[in-house]
Amino acid sequence: MRIILLVISILLASASLGAHAQSYDVNVGLQAFQDEDYDTAIENFTEGAMIGHALAQFNLGLMYHQGIGTQVDHERAMQLYALAAQQGIVQAQFNLGLMYDRGEGIPQDYREAYYWYRQAAEQGSADGQYAVGTMNFYGQGRPRDYEAAIRWYQEAARQGHRDAQYNLGVMHLSGMGTEASPIVALTWFEMAAENGSADAQYNAAMMYSAGQGVERDVLKARDLFAMAAEQGMRDAQTQLGMLYSSGNNEQLPRDYEQAHTWFNEAAHRGDSLAQLFLGRIYADGLGLEQNLTIGHMWYEISYRFGNEQAPRYLTQLREQMDPESIEQAELMALRWMIAYARRNPGSVRLRREEPIGSAEQPTAEPSP
User: Fold this and answer.
1) Which domain holds residue 330?
2) Does the pLDDT of residue 4 top 90, yes or no?
3) Going by C-beta distance under 8 Å and a sequence separation of 6 or more, which residues neighbour residue 83?
4) Which of 96, 109, 175, 305 maximizes the CB count within 10 A of its CB?
5) Is residue 128 included in any domain, yes or no?
6) What pLDDT score was predicted for residue 350?
């Protein structure tokens, strides 16, 4: 995942602007910007831009780029960024690359994007280094080059860029541009995890859970899954629920209350496996009072979200229920799915209506 931040410079100009420009003070504009007095900021930055002040050019470009205190004007922003970039302002170089990369106000041009990202990268910009690494990884604006991607990701990673650290973990795990090494991969994942990357926390947890490149450690896996789960990652929430529900390791006793908590979180985010496990908890009364209707509701939702195991559980559960309860459960499932679709427009592709019980028998089943 690529995270790009646009920042407003708080550096002070040190270059001489000539006798006619000695009275100009960019700090007036910076203070006005911080005070949200955008008219004054634009006036000040415009004055500075006209006399060639690089920071004024960058900051005015930023305001046009983001539409701060003015209408968005990508063409004007690009012109101002280019002027500042040519004077060595690293943020302007990066943002200029970003506009070419995204095709903002101009046709997308990966070659130009790469050029400006590279300028920023060579000045030490971690975001620029990460961007250059990513373009080498995907072959954008130049031939794909995994080894170059690794080199640039390493430069960014040394500055604490968590996405670069995560990508290095992926590349070392998969052997892209380097010899595959789960041990090295885990090292990078853990660095990114410490910097808050949910993806890295999840991958490191999976490696500890499976004993991949490291001695199996269920408690370490739980802690890492929990970090990612608390950031809203539904796969981590499901895995955390599975750890608590299985209880097949001396390090982590079975805990249905915790399992319910995390399956419920993931289920409400649309994870069909968590929905199936949650249905099982209610249907079998695992750690809470048995409720066949709610169990049926979650099995139904899981099936409509594409889980191939759900029909089997629905069929078995219906044998224990009366028609009125089944109808109530189906209505509850329908209402839940409608509410979910409203909260997440365009994100739901539900399975079309099919007779329950017609699907193939599952090869595995949940084991809460």
Assistant:
1) 270-361
2) no
3) 49, 52, 54, 57, 92
4) 96
5) no
6) 53
Residue 221, domain member (yes or no)? yes
147 DSSP assignment: H
Q: How confident is the model at residue 247 (pLDDT cuts 50, 70, 90)?
A: confident
Lowest mean pLDDT among 7-16, 129-138, 169-178, 321-330: 7-16
Task: Copy the structure tokens of residue 274.
Answer: 């968590």
Q: Which long-range contacts (CB under 8 A, 24 or more apart) does 329-337 make?
A: 329/292, 329/293, 329/294, 329/296, 329/297, 329/300, 330/296, 330/297, 330/300, 332/293, 332/294, 332/297, 333/296, 333/297, 333/298, 333/300, 333/301, 333/304, 336/297, 336/301, 337/301, 337/304
Q: Give the count of beta carbons closer than 10 Å to the beta carbon of residue 85.
A: 25
As a whole number of angstroms, the distance between CA 215 and CA 4 comes to: 36
What tokens were used for 24? 């100009």
What does the mean pLDDT of the chain come to?
Answer: 90
Instruction: Look up the CATH number of the domain holding residue 235.
Output: 1.25.40.10
User: 249: helix, coil or strand?
Assistant: strand
The model carries a pTM of: 0.85
Residue appearing with tokens 């994942």 = 189
User: For the chain, first and last CA: distance in Å?
Assistant: 33
E runs forming strands in the chain = none
Structure token digits, residue 264: 């419920």
More confident residue, 252 or 82: 82
In whole angstroms, give the CA distance from residue 232 to residue 5: 22
Give the pLDDT confidence score for residue 251 in this predicted structure: 80
